[in-house]
Amino acid sequence: MVRMAICFCFESLYQIRIVCISGESRDAYFYAGTIKHSLMPNGNDGVQLQFPEGSNDALKRYTNENITIKVPKDLDTSDIRWLTVW
User: Fold this and answer.
1) Are strands 30-33 and 82-85 parallel, antiparallel or unpaired?
2) pLDDT tens column, 16-65
3) Where are the domains of the chain?
4) Most buried residue, 21, 23, 42, 58, by CB count within 10 Å?
């Protein structure tokens, strides 16, 4: 189960309030997409966002936490149309 809200964003950062990420999936990651109507993240329209920065590890369990995600250097938050845990 995932519940989160994007609180605000800056040029290259997202501040996210995580209500709950259960941590039950071995392969859950943050993804951002640049195409408005995408059914699922893929290499053509979505990029994996490293969290914590520099890590390729799957997401762990989070409850009632604020986190900051940095977008890759070749993207700006204004380019991103969706953000998800996949």
Assistant:
1) antiparallel
2) 887 778 877 778 888 888 876 656 666 667 888 898 889 989 888 888 88
3) 2-85
4) 21
